[in-house]
Amino acid sequence: MSKNFSIDALLNNVDHESKTSPMLYVNPLFQTFLHQLQLEQTKTLNQLSHSLTTSDSDEDDNSSVSSINKTTNSSSSARRKRTAFSNEQLIELEAEFQQKKYLSLVERSQIARSLHLSEIQVKIWWQNRRAKWKRIKAGQLRQFSTHCENNKILCPIPVHVKKPFTS
């Protein structure tokens, strides 16, 4: 009646007395998840193969690549298209950005309403513009520091040596 608890027996799930493998329990939610994942992968592969077989020969390579990317990126939620801001919107956004690098929620809401944009679009634009501003600032700082290194003016710094006081 002794059971084998060796590593090999445990890893191989072998019961040496009965010579049968025990049933493995799999959570039903996990089974559903795996099934949905398989369905999505099959759907994506079908769409991909369909887009490859039905693409017109007149289309350039870029459009077929973008259709492949759209197909592979599409999961349960579709990706939003890139927002093309109008010149008026960009001018207004830039003017506001020059005044303030950070917006409050109220300011963001007011700008979004006045430019007919969503608050998220304004928020993302502000984040991207702030990142660009920081890159430009860092580049200018780097340029300035290399300019200063090349044009160094060396001047001696007086060093005071303490001598023992004698009277």
Automatic annotation (TrEMBL):
Chief subcellular location: nucleus
Pfam families (UniProt xref): Homeodomain
Claim: Nucleus is one of the keywords in the record: yes
Record has Nucleus as a keyword: yes
InterPro entries hit by this protein: GBX-1/2, HD, HD_metazoa, Homeodomain-like_sf
Domain Homeobox, first and last residues per copy: 76-136
GO biological process, one term: regulation of nervous system development
Entry keyword set: DNA-binding, Homeobox, Nucleus
Record's compositionally biased regions (Low complexity): 63-77
GO-annotated cellular components: nucleus
Chain intervals for the UniProt region annotation (Disordered): 51-81
Location in the cell: Nucleus
Name of this chain's protein: Homeobox domain-containing protein
Species this protein is from: Adineta ricciae (Rotifer)
